Amino acid sequence: MSGKRKVTFDLGDCNRCQGCLEMAKDYVEWEDSLDMPVLREEMIPEDVAQELIAMCPNDCFSYDDE
């Protein structure tokens, strides 16, 4: 089992493709008031974080400590 990492999400770069919702529905949710996805929590499993970082077309996700 992997550890958890702190992840940040840059809303300014998001194009609302909703791929992150499909990949990590336990950690990302759609915020109707923003009309954008948001992280449910900053600390997420490292394997989920790696997938979000690798698959986001606009590089919206990054490790907070890098």
Which structural traits does this protein have?
two-stranded antiparallel ribbon; 66 residues; alpha+beta; 2 helices; 30% strand
Task: Please outline what is shown here.
23% of the residues lie in helices and 30% in strands. The protein contains two helices and five strands.
Strand content: 25-35%
Q: Count the helices. How many?
A: 2
- Distance from N terminus to C terminus (CA atoms, Å) equals 22 Å
* Mean pLDDT score: 92
Low-confidence parts lasting 5 or more residues at pLDDT below 50? none
Topology at a glance:
Elements: E1 4-9, H1 19-23, E2 28-31, E3 36-39, E4 43-45, H2 46-55, E5 61-63
Antiparallel strand pairs: 1-4, 1-5, 2-3
